[in-house]
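does this look right to u?? magnesium ion version
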Amino acid sequence: MEFMSIKEALKKGHGRVAIRGWIYRERTMKDKVFLVIRDSSDIIQCVVKDKEYEKAKDLLIESSVKIEGTIRKDERAPTGYEIDVSHLEVVHKAEKYPITKDQSIEFLADQRHLWIRSRKMTAILKIRSTVFGAIHEFFRKKGFYEFQSPIIIPGGAEEGPTLFEVKYYGKKMYLAQTWQLYAEAAMFALEKIYTIAPSFRAEKSKTSRHLTEYWHAEVEVAWMDMHELIDLCEGLIKHCLKKVLEECKDELKILDRDYKKLEVALDKKFLRVTYDDVLKDLEKKKIKVKWGKDLRTEEEEKFMEGKDVPVFVTHYPKDIMAFYKPRDPLRKDVAICFDLLAPEAMGEIVGGSQRDIDIQELEKTLKKKGEKLKDYGYYLDTRKYGSVPHSGFGMGVERLVRWICGLESIKDAIGFPRTMERFKP
Ligand code: 4AD
Ligand code: MG
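got this back:
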């Protein structure tokens, strides 16, 4: 008989079925064994007795098996159906599984290669896969080209201290924090480009939102201003929410995620405020932030309290922004840039801006930041040959997945997380 997934077997609901997978739970009685089998699609309870009993009775969890039998409704079974097993084939007898109930987060992190099989991780990884697919689909439908930038680069783009060094034939190179500077060059060929690629940040912070290696969805678009860019960003996030709500309700339920909150965010327009508005709001909440200082995590969280949709915060002080964010001609001390803050204390999930196309201003800012102009030669060239207005943003995919899944830590939004303290397995 041909194998089907457990989900397909549950859908069939009657008659003969053949499945294969791993023992998720087992309970041995005097004359029968209850095996809950899992595969990537779902779990199902199986009852083994008579001639197959001997084979099943001392199997440990995570042993792999093939099963044939008859499926029928059973309200008491975990997924509402049960298989009466007529044939059991043991593919591999597992050793005693190191993961049992109620183990510490650190222990589970050490056992990540095994913990990844858990129902929780499986659900998260499916949602993550759906989000990646949604990002590609969104941009490709809009006629964007996928462009890949180098990972090993001669210099930075965001803050210097978060660069990882790489030994490169006796020279010092770095791991890319962003595709942006190369994307700005490629944009002249392709106009509308995007990528999803790893970015690297040597973060010293041990927070629930920082990884040292994360997946970065980035876009760069010719002729686009910041307001159009913000609309594009809202469209992207809503497309991801929509796809997950359409395809991953079961997974959200496994995670105990109150997905009504995501439906609300999908239905409403995201808010748009300025940095100045945030400071005013915080002042009302008795929190004083000196104008010109970046917003700290606690301040962002205070500001987001009670908000049920993401908020675009625009026009941050120019002096604390990356060199490529342009001065606003109408208000010289702020830059034409934005951060998108997610509700539920999830913090910044996107950062973006219009790009400075004034070469003198760019050179001045780079010098002020202590950068060597010769390191940016190729970048400044883009402002010499047919320069055009353009904009782009970067979204931390794990940050989005963390919010969608409602996760305590960003570490669970990726298969094998890398942080300052966690780099094995
Ligand atoms: O705000 P950032 O630093 O902006 C850039 O890198 C721009 N060059 C992007 C662009 O315009 N093309 O990073 C963008 C996003 C952040 O909003 C955040 O979601 C994510 O990348 N991010 C991280 N995610 C996980 N761990 C970290 N250490 C992250 N640092 C940034
Ligand atoms: Mg940022």
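Residues 119-141 form the longest helix (23 residues). idk if thats expected tbh
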